[in-house]
Amino acid sequence: MNKLRQDRQFRPLPVPSVEVHGLFGDRQDAICESTAEVLLDRCVEAGMLRAIDVEQPSPGIVIPLQAWSGSTQMFWDSDLGKSIETIAYSLYRRPNPRLEARVDAIVDMYEKLQDEDGYLNAWFQRVQPGRRWTNLRDHHELYCAGHLIEGAVAYYQATGKRKLLDVMARFADYMIEVFGHGEGQLPGYCGHEEIELALVKLARVTGEKKYLDLAKFFIDERGREPHFFTEEAIRDGRDPKQFIQKTYEYGQAHLPVREQKKVVGHAVRAMYLYSGMADIATEYNDDSLTTALETLWDDLTTKQMYVTGGIGPAASNEGFTDHYDLPNESAYAETCASVGLVFWASRMLGRGPNRRYADIMEQALYNGAMAGLSLDGKTFFYENPLESAGKHHRWIWHHCPCCPPNISRLLASIGSYMYAVADDEIAVHLYGESKGRFEIGGKKVELAQKTRYPWDGAIRFDVTTQDPVRFSLSLRIPEWAEGAALKLNGESVDLSNVTIDGYARIEREWRSGDRVELDIPLKPRTLWANPQVRQDTGRVALMRGPLVYCAEATDNGAGLNGIVLGGDISNAKTAEIAELQGAVALDISVARDKADDWGATLYRTSPPKVNQATARFVPYHLWDNRTPGEMLVWVRAGEVGR
Amino acid sequence: MNKLRQDRQFRPLPVPSVEVHGLFGDRQDAICESTAEVLLDRCVEAGMLRAIDVEQPSPGIVIPLQAWSGSTQMFWDSDLGKSIETIAYSLYRRPNPRLEARVDAIVDMYEKLQDEDGYLNAWFQRVQPGRRWTNLRDHHELYCAGHLIEGAVAYYQATGKRKLLDVMARFADYMIEVFGHGEGQLPGYCGHEEIELALVKLARVTGEKKYLDLAKFFIDERGREPHFFTEEAIRDGRDPKQFIQKTYEYGQAHLPVREQKKVVGHAVRAMYLYSGMADIATEYNDDSLTTALETLWDDLTTKQMYVTGGIGPAASNEGFTDHYDLPNESAYAETCASVGLVFWASRMLGRGPNRRYADIMEQALYNGAMAGLSLDGKTFFYENPLESAGKHHRWIWHHCPCCPPNISRLLASIGSYMYAVADDEIAVHLYGESKGRFEIGGKKVELAQKTRYPWDGAIRFDVTTQDPVRFSLSLRIPEWAEGAALKLNGESVDLSNVTIDGYARIEREWRSGDRVELDIPLKPRTLWANPQVRQDTGRVALMRGPLVYCAEATDNGAGLNGIVLGGDISNAKTAEIAELQGAVALDISVARDKADDWGATLYRTSPPKVNQATARFVPYHLWDNRTPGEMLVWVRAGEVGR
Fold it and tell me: Which region is the signal sequence (chains A, B) (predicted)?
């Protein structure tokens, strides 16, 4: 029984089993063309290779290092790990021997860097060698290991090369010695979660249950009393109460995870933790974890999530504040956090399709996450505000370069988020032009998805099978998809008869030539926020399908808060924007405050005059890809339709 | 010609020449009763006396000092200076021998601390003795001196005791040796303006023009090239580009003052500079300064000022950002900055009454500034946001305790802002129950102002003169005062015939028994902001007279952004609130989003239901004096009246 159980229900389709086209395909092309190499180049520019290369002088102690390179952080291994992961996925789509050779060289460096006992962390081997495992709360050692493990798994799967995987498995074996309740072991866990979900991936690729057990150990220990972080600080001669973030909520270590009911602290940490918890819940059929996760899911999605799927409004803790506190202009809403929400949502689907999770996965993906990568794949957002006065722009690199490789690895592997498979069921969670290859009951099944989604809601599935094969095909019907219609081989299917948990489930013996047609009307809709969200009162957000729309100054001129949108937007016209790779814009008749005839005064007793005008709205995730300027998601709502 | 010229037009009435009652009187009572002593107590608790007392061990170098007391700053002399000034004014109203004795003891300490050459600064004598005059940009030495001079002048005027005045005059004489363009002199000025206006006060009380000349020197040198701060940094072995605030705009030293057109940088510094410039413009009849000041005035009041007279929206520089950038919830709007705006405005009245300045003086005083002091005089605001989610509250003390003594010294001396006098004219800038004693052409004149203003707009002036005396009485007619009416001895006076620059000017031979009645209707009014203020679009602020109103949760429950105010507020009812010392509240019928039946979802396609309700608005400066909670100034505007 030290081998991995295979009794969980749904697993994502492996990345190479999905051919991706359409919008996601365009993004993957940009990643193959630019981002994959850009990530590596910028890691190198930031000094990361000098840091891990034992042939070069050690970067020295902390302060000199800052002078030596202003762009590195204690956790640079994680950036390399995520970059390797991105490159690995990109190699499926477009073989790139030169890039692969660069990764091989990095892997060689890591192999040489690894200590005899298996320990591996550039910072604590090269910069602060005496400080290994002295401060799990702040030092990111296991976080870095987690990202290197994810990179190693992906690189092994993409290339068949085991070297980095073996290095990381040795490190994980060493962790098993270090962590535990035995004599001389540490009952600890990392302040920044990540190792948990990475160990699950390592277990799945190696078939070794011991890595799952370690992941579960980290999850089970988190937040228990006596508190590990407190005891560790005392051992290390530090005042346990003196640390920047002041509270263990920052790293979700304030309570045992099964007792947590409110999503708190650093948003990325929270998402990675819940992702790991969901994996462990699936692997161990652990209902106590699932119950906690469902409570946390509701808390996040009904009280703390931007309409973009952005999460974590505050810069101060890169994370959560109070329920219903969702400031727009100062929204932190880190790209990584929305990426993390996609990770979590996808893992909540491990126990079966449910649009409660998949709808949010799609919403976070298409808006909060995808905003993080420019169309050309070369520039990035870290924060994702829902309003900008025109000074927030994509950057080339960031002193904390976590987001670029994070959104890139997600998009480069998006196929595995689109499709999942169980013993006798295929679930389609996300729509988009693509082809998925499955094996059901030992038989090959191919599902060709033909669609222009998310620009158009007509979706066709053509089935090809080796032999006729019985399975269920589950297609998500988004909650917002009013008037969706389904046909099987030309015959209408009554959705109300076949829909379970928001998925239309067609069980039959499928054979080549079978065709399913799903039509999801993509009528623009206005959303109001719960009145407790003070920042959105009297305002509406515009959506079409899964996409949140925004107004940009480049289309509308400055003064976007002068726009007043009526409740009735049935007059909206669509337009394809060539500059945005054919994205669908919405042109809507609005009222608009006149600013030009106001005069010089700052305040007066009469309101501004109002014009009728047409405003153009474009998908939020595409903003700041053209002439930079103001941007606004929540526009003022008129009385019409109220 | 080294004596002070006396040819400027208007000077504020000295503090003891005005008896103040009504609302201002209540505040002064609270200051006499509590604040004056509280300020001194808290300075002592913060370790300031140990710092200046040469009988006690030196606080040591910087870092140990921080451990020694967490509440002191490099510029503590300024806090003592402002506290002494507050106490001095309070002694007119209420003699307090015990408090006066405490000040005398502090003055003795300063006398002992002063160096042989006249230098006086607790930090650079006791903590960093080798660093005198090495970093004018950051070190606040002249700023501290300025506040001690202001304190010394006020204390001398209140008590007749010259000791501190003599100490500070010696220091100023030493400054005259140190600063200038001569051999071995420094052509510098302080990074934090204040010394300029203080030297004007010193010149006025001593009659010594040399202090005016030094103030003018500091103003003239500011921002000139080659830049003093750059040269000083190089001399001191510092990189001139490496400093926290990055730009000389922070201290308004980016350009020579006469070339400055935009109000930039740290708000308090800007206000103190402009106050000094206005004084020098008056004293030297310097039109080049006046022209610059008028441009800066327009820039501030038409593009950068909250409706409360709060200024400086950003915490990052405690100051200004862009034109029309006036965020409400994150508004910094430091109490000191509004106090500084009152200082500046009052000095712009030095060359004659003009409501362009006096209206803003009143607006900043009654709202942005007075909010800084609680009704009981014991707690303080530093930041003054125009919206609070319920977590912004008055504090007992601040690590940078500049605001408490600043608003206190302003209110304790408010009489001198109410009345000004020229050779043949009395100007009444502010209304409020009071009695002013003047001397015109060698004859005593008493003006008794009888009114409940700002709660009621009926104002009566009764004149008492020694003998009949000819002068003009100028009464401000606020720009907002629609329908104001004036009577002289019962006879109506046509305002349009007598109003110049917004002041009704009655020139005649006045005699005892003359009565002037001014009626200023205090009808509530709604204000819209310039549409370029994105944060206020679709919203209105409510004012009545000079007072900005706000809604508080204690009156209205939570969810203040659910309130929608129609343009028509003629149905407003007034109510006197006993808890707020009889302040007039406004009860207005509004629409209000229903939050309780919305359900659990965060976003939905239908708007919230709307109720009719009555909302209560109270004067902004009185908020957070009752049960703490949400507060909102700019409420949503309905379509009514548009």
Answer: none
